[in-house]
Design brief:
With 280 residues, this protein is an alpha/beta fold. The chain contains twelve helices and eight strands. Bound molecules: 1,3-dihydroxyacetonephosphate and zinc ion. It holds the Pfam family F_bP_aldolase.
Length: 280
Amino acid sequence: MKIKEKLQLFTKQKRGLLATNFYNLETLHGVLKAAQELNEPLILQLTQSSIEYMGLDTAVKLGRAGLRQFGVEGWLHLDHGGSVDLAQRCLDAGFDSVMIDGSELPFEENIKITREVVKRAEQYGAHVEAELGYVAKLGQSHARQGFTQPAEAKQFVEATGVDALAVAIGTAHGFYKKRPELDIELLANIAKVTPATLVLHGGSGVPEDQLQKAISNGICKVNLATEIKNIFMQTLQMELAGNAEIDLRKVFPKATGQITELVKGKLKIMKNSSDVEIVH
Ligand code: 13P
Ligand code: ZN
């Protein structure tokens, strides 16, 4: 199934589709093992910096080979694409989906750049995600607010023809200093006025009950990155403390295994959300 159809199906079923970032072979295998064990689909995401780190061709081939090796239904997605050029390179490299993140541009500029990527992606039959509103990036202020407004979301999706929209409803990238409080009412109102698949960025650290409420009120794609990096590095640092092992293949499996446990927990949350819908 194509990613667009899967997201539409899951939205209808009020199920979340988890999108995990990967950075190298170990993090890729960690997330794929979780999807394999639970027989769940998964979106594999690459940011510009991960693409630069691994090389575009290597990253794509690694992702595709991993999906085949683990027998997982999954898709490759560009996360937070910052330019039309990068989106174009990823389309050429065979991505199933690209995000163009014009969320820091003025509204009309965001429409313009998103429309351009939508036009290009059409020729590849690829899926496009955009972002509207302020979801703090790593290092940006959590205090500033810029939630997505339903009327703007409607106008934006109509003007761009974008398939999926990342919304600002109270999440932020990275760890939270205080417990996030998602605006579920606002989310439900956005979902009512736009047919686009709704995406939750900043999935790390969002309490389980809030993730479930978000999914049952319109969110489908849930992005997870920081918790994956964190558990991998925390475990690896413990493994390496006072360890003289020089066979690097022996020190990674524990950290990879911890990613698998983490992602299995999140995948279970994605499925169990239909009983907490807000009824208006
Ligand atoms: P976290 O790093 O907070 O999980 O956010 C992930 C994300 O939104 C990737 O686009
Ligand atoms: Zn994000």
